[in-house]
Amino acid sequence: MSTNSTINLMREMAIFAKVVETGSFSETARQLAATPSAISRSVAKLEKALGTRLLQRTTRKLRLSESGQEVYAHCLNMMEAAQEIMAVSGNFSREPQGIIRVSVPKAVGRFVVHPHIAAFLVQYPKVDVNLRLDDRYVDLIDDQVDLAIRITDQPPPGLMGRRLLNIWHMLCATPEYLAEHGTPQHPHDLKTHSCIYLGEEPGDSRWKFSQGNKVATVNIHGRYAANHTGVRLDAVLQHIGIGSLPYFTAKHALQQGRLVQVLPDWSFKANYTGELWILYPPTRHLPPKLRVFIEFLAERLRKEITSDKMEAKNLTTNHYELPEAEKLPETEK
Q1: Is the sign of the CA dihedral 159, 162, 164, 166 positive or negative?
Q2: In what residue span(s) does the HTH lysR-type domain sit (predicted)?
């Protein structure tokens, strides 16, 4: 059967499924605002096209034939698919609403995303957010996640995304610590300092730096290691030593003068660096709730980075790169 013939018979298939559901030509006609004879002709037309009897008619009831049972199962699937399509299209035509499930690394979620959620909830009162802070790999389909925020060079195969900002690390200490122990002028000076580091792998205690054509690698040591940036931040603020921190973690303490950047003329090379992306399954049409969340977060972070750059005169400024504005898939009207 050709595609055109199938399309021409879709109405008859729907009517046939309704007849089976109601068990009556007359009841189907009543519900569809038609005549029983018109309903009977539609079923007869489908039977003729398929070359098989679908219904066994008696004076009291209708009974599905063996072939009719199989055809009815497929017609029922067709109707359910049509209902699902209508439900999806409704999502695009309505205002943003529903729940958004967002997976994000713990530190990024706490310091980058979470501070903006309250304003988002106020602006979009019909949208709820389920923020899942987890450093493990999350599969959007298997884990039932709408959006994933990850540090990556580009969206992995099978996903689309939008760049949010660059993640970079720096060394920080309190003015009190530096006043007591001195301020390093070269990476090798760190050998005499207490350093607070990640501590997950042996390489975490080998800090790497670059300055133009110069490179330096230093085996640091310290009495405290922690694999959470919030904990390392607190340890640095308690004057335990010089710590490696993502800028987004140390930002407010730097702005308040509670922390000072150490070795600002050197670039600190850490594994936990790169571009922060918000990822989603490939689609031509994003649901409104996802579209507004992505746009909202991207714009808030853009303004935040612009403000930070204006205040960062005493910090290395080559890391304050704003991603270019990227167009999201259009929402179907």
Answers
A1: positive
A2: 8-65
41 and 32 Cβ atoms separated by less than 8 Å: no
Q: What are residue 153's phi and psi, to 5 degrees?
A: -75, -35
Nearest one of 202, 204, 206 to 191, comparing CA atoms: 206
Query: Which among 266, 223, 230 has a CA at the least distance from the CA of 245?
Result: 230
What would the pLDDT profile of 281-304 be if each residue is shown by its tens digit?
887 678 899 999 999 999 999 988
Give this prediction's pTM.
0.64
Whole-angstrom distance, CA of residue 254 vs CA of residue 272: 20
DSSP 261-284: EESTTSEEE-SS-EEEEEEE---S
User: Over the stretch 201-221, which tens digit does the pLDDT of each residue have?
Assistant: 888 999 999 999 999 999 999
- Taken in order 67, 72, 75, 81, the sign of the CA dihedral is negative
Unique residue bearing structure tokens 């001195």: 182
- What's domain 98-158+276-311's architecture? 3-Layer(aba) Sandwich (3.40)
User: Candidates 3.30.1490.190, 3.60.60.10, 1.10.8.60, 1.10.10.10; correct CATH number of 3-88?
Assistant: 1.10.10.10
CA distances from 91 to 78, 96, 144, 145, 210 (A): 20, 8, 18, 17, 50
